């Protein structure tokens, strides 16, 4: 790739050069990004996007990097997080939020307005953009169950509103992810509920997470998608792989579906461990585990 020279309109856009992504990613793993941007409004997003297109610079959109393994060689070109675009509004039964708002925070705002529907999301540490793109879900609910529509920046650089029916949702996937579109905001249709009941549900789910998940270590949540008819955690447990490690990447002894970074794991360690688990589970049960976590960047 040729050297990137930013023109003066970039001086106002908050960014870092050569940013170690391990300091940003949830997993505390990842090499340097050439540029990491935090635009504060749609104009800045479009400026970065158009410049990358015109100059053939790779463009990667991220939220909190809570579902990403970033390889040790880092990410070339522009990495853009919308975390500064984080306004949330409630109008009657609808909650509209910019893409960089925290999903957890959105679930608490819904609670404040006695709106039910986002309780399942109260412990998912992603942004709205990441959750809408990934169709994040937990405890038998998913984003697609409550999403009404979202604003996206298309590959042609146009802002359009898409209804959930246009997003081709499936388990942890959407057309946004496949087409590399950018979510700018999302509107959720929620239901008036009882404040105390919503709060109790959120507390119950939080308790479950605290009991079952190794939240004291960096991880990226469940590494594998749930295969039809099985539980990943149980398969890994039955194969006696808990505690298995490569370098500082280790299969959690608390929740077998999680791989934790016990200290200074590299992406190489982490990905090697994923591949080893997949092989062992295939050899033992003839089941091919599919990754839920996404891998980006260079070796
Ligand atoms: C402890 C822990 C628990 C977790 N529990 C759950 C759970 O219960 N359920 C669950 O589903 N997930 C869970 N996750 C995974 C993760 O939090 C979700 O997948 C979340 O939705 C990812 O959001 P993010 O903002 O971090 O996205 P990132 O990880 O930054 O990105 C994920 C994908 O979304 C894309 N993306 C991000 N922002 C945008 C945007 N604005 N527009 C378009 N695409 C975008 C990225 O390009 C990438 O492809 C967990 C993770 C951890 C660490």
Topology:
Elements lengths: L14 E6 L11 E6 L4 H13 L4 E4 L5 E3 L4 E7 L6 E4 L2 E5 L4 H10 L2 E2 L11 H7 L2 E2 L2 E2 H4 E7 L5 E5 L11 H5 L2 E8 L1 E2 L2 H18 L19 H7 L6 E2 L2 E3 L7 E3 L5 H19 L8 E3 L3
Parallel strand pairs: 2-5, 3-5, 4-18
Antiparallel strand pairs: 1-2, 6-7, 7-13, 8-14, 9-10, 11-12, 11-13, 15-16, 16-17
The structure holds flavin-adenine dinucleotide.
Task: Describe the protein's architecture and organization.
- There is one protein chain.
- The protein has 299 residues and is an alpha+beta fold.
- It has three domains: 8-81, Uridine Diphospho-n-acetylenolpyruvylglucosamine Reductase, domain 2; 88-211, Uridine Diphospho-n-acetylenolpyruvylglucosamine Reductase, domain 3; 214-296, UDP-N-acetylenolpyruvoylglucosamine reductase, C-terminal domain (Uridine Diphospho-n-acetylenolpyruvylglucosamine Reductase, domain 1, Alpha-Beta Complex), CATH 3.90.78.
- Helices cover 28% and strands 25% of the residues.
- The chain has helices at 42-54, 103-112, 128-134, 143-146, 175-179, 195-212, 232-238, 267-285, and strands spanning 15-20, 32-37, 59-62, 68-70, 75-81, 88-91, 94-98, 115-116, 137-138, 141-142, 147-153, 159-163, 182-189, 191-192, 245-246, 249-251, 259-261, 294-296.
- The strands form six sheets. The chain has a five-stranded antiparallel sheet. It has a four-stranded mixed sheet with strand order 1-2-5-3, covered by helices on one side. The protein has a three-stranded antiparallel sheet with strand order 15-16-17.
- Strand 15 (245-246) and strand 16 (249-251) form a beta hairpin.
- The longest helix has 19 residues, at 267-285.
- The radius of gyration is 20 Å and the shape is globular.
- The two termini are 16 Å apart.
- The mean pLDDT is 97.
- The protein binds flavin-adenine dinucleotide (FAD).
- The site of flavin-adenine dinucleotide has 33 residues, from strand 3, helix 3, strand 9, helix 5 and strand 13.
């Amino acid at each position: 790739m040729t050297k990137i020279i930013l023109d003066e309109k970039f001086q106002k856009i908050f960014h870092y050069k050569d940013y170690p992504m391990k300091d940003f990613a949830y997993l505390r793993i990842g090499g340097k990004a050439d540029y990491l941007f935090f635009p504060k409004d749609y104009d800045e997003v479009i400026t970065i996007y158009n410049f990358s297109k015109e100059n053939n610079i790779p463009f990667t959109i991220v939220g909190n990097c809570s579902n990403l393994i970033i390889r040790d060689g880092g990410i070339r070109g522009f990495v853009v997080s919308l975390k500064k675009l984080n306004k949330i509004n409630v109008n009657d039964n609808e909650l509209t939020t910019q893409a960089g708002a925290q999903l957890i925070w959105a679930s608490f705002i819904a609670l404040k307005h006695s709106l039910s529907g986002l309780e399942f999301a109260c412990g998912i540490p992603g942004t709205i953009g990441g959750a809408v793109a990934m169709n994040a879900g937990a405890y038998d609910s998913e984003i697609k169950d409550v999403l009404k529509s979202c604003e996206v920046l298309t590959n042609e650089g146009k802002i359009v509103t898409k209804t959930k029916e246009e997003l081709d949702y499936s388990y942890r996937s959407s057309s946004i992810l496949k087409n590399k579109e950018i979510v700018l905001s999302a509107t959720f249709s929620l239901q008036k509920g009882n404040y105390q009941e919503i709060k109790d549900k959120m507390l119950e789910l939080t308790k479950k997470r605290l009991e079952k998940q190794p939240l004291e270590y960096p991880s990226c949540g469940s590494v594998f998608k749930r295969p039809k008819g099985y539980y990943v955690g149980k398969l890994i447990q039955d194969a006696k792989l808990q505690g298995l490690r490569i370098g500082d990447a280790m299969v959690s002894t608390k929740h077998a579906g999680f791989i934790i970074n016990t200290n200074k794991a590299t992406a190489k360690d982490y990905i090697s461990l994923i591949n080893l688990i997949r092989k062992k589970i295939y050899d033992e049960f003839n089941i091919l585990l599919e990754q839920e976590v996404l891998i980006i960047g260079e070796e």
